């Protein structure tokens, strides 16, 4: 696991560099897309590169991590719409190449199975962008999630609903109670995991993720088992890392050509 501690703007550039390198090598690469505030600066940077430097998403494929159950198709907080607004529409990404679990399906388990199949049929995810919840969840895999789980329906914790109430007019009752989410096993099958976290409120989750024992109680810790996982954090999110100085030193002495 590589840990990079840097200002948020620099982290966004690093993540965008990794995505750009991938897309230049394989224009039809498969990207895993996260919602939440953590990846927004990365999406801004990708939109800038699309506009100013011709970075193309015309052949790229995208798979979202998760989706709320039951939000109306036109709800602005439906993750499919968030991804459309924050990244897809800004880089002229053809809508039929961006996929998400169907939180409005009548048969939700069948929709989850179909989603897993679609990821497999696409050849798997090349690079998965991730954020982390204050309770350590990745995607919507709440504490207690099976470390081998696949896409399925989950119940959101009270903490996650409180955290996400800011997107619903600060009214926690408006936040859906259920979601569909890629499982931890699904996420672990991606070839490169790139997690972003900023702010002191993420410090404990980041400490557990990087340095804690692997446990379903901190679902992100499963990433310690991934052969290519990158954790991009700012000073505040890194403030509880026991080996912070070592990660800083390691990154400073890393050759520039190496990339993430
Ligand atoms: N389902 C999303 C996650 O994919 C996200 O990583 C996390 C952190 O969100 P934020 O980046 O806004 O802190 O919580 C949300 O509930």
From TrEMBL:
Protein's name according to its UniProt entry: Glucosamine-6-phosphate deaminase
Native organism taxonomy: Bacteria, Bacillati, Actinomycetota, Actinomycetes, Micrococcales
A single GO molecular function term of this UniProt record: glucosamine-6-phosphate deaminase activity
InterPro entries xrefs: Glc/Gal-6P_isomerase (IPR006148), Glucosamine6P_isomerase (IPR004547), Glucosamine6P_isomerase_CS (IPR018321), NagB/RpiA_transferase-like (IPR037171)
Catalytic activity: alpha-D-glucosamine 6-phosphate + H2O = beta-D-fructose 6-phosphate + NH4(+)
Keyword RNA-binding: no
Species of provenance: Isoptericola peretonis
Database matches in Gene3D superfamilies: 3.40.50.1360
Annotated catalytic residues: 66 (proton acceptor), 135 (for ring-opening step), 137 (proton acceptor), 142 (for ring-opening step)
Top-rank lineage group of the source organism: Bacteria
């Amino acid at each position: 696991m590589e840990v990079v501690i840097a200002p948020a703007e620099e982290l966004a550039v690093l993540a965008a560099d990794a995505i750009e390198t991938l897309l230049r090598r394989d224009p039809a690469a498969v990207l895993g897309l996260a919602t939440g505030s953590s990846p927004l600066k990365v999406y801004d940077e990708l939109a800038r590169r699309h506009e100013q430097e011709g970075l193309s998403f015309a052949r790229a494929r995208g798979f979202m991590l998760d989706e709320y159950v039951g939000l109306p198709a036109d709800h602005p907080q439906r993750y499919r719409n968030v991804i459309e607004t924050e990244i897809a529409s800004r880089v002229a990404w053809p809508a039929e190449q961006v996929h998400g679990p169907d939180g409005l399906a009548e048969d939700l388990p069948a929709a989850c199975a179909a989603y897993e199949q679609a990821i497999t049929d696409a050849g798997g995810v090349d690079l998965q962008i991730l954020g982390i919840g204050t309770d350590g969840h990745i995607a919507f895999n709440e504490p207690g999630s099976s470390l081998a789980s696949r896409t399925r329906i989950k119940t959101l914790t009270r903490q996650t609903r409180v955290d996400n109430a800011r997107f619903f007019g600060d009214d926690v009752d408006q936040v859906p109670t259920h979601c569909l989410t890629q499982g931890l096993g699904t996420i672990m099958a991606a070839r490169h995991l790139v997690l972003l976290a900023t702010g002191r409120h993420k410090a404990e989750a980041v400490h557990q993720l990087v340095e804690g024992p692997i446990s379903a109680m901190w679902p992100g810790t499963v990433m310690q088992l991934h052969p290519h996982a990158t954790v991009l954090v700012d000073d505040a999110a890194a403030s509880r890392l026991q080996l912070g100085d070592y990660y800083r030193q390691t990154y400073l002495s890393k050759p520039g050509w190496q990339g993430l």
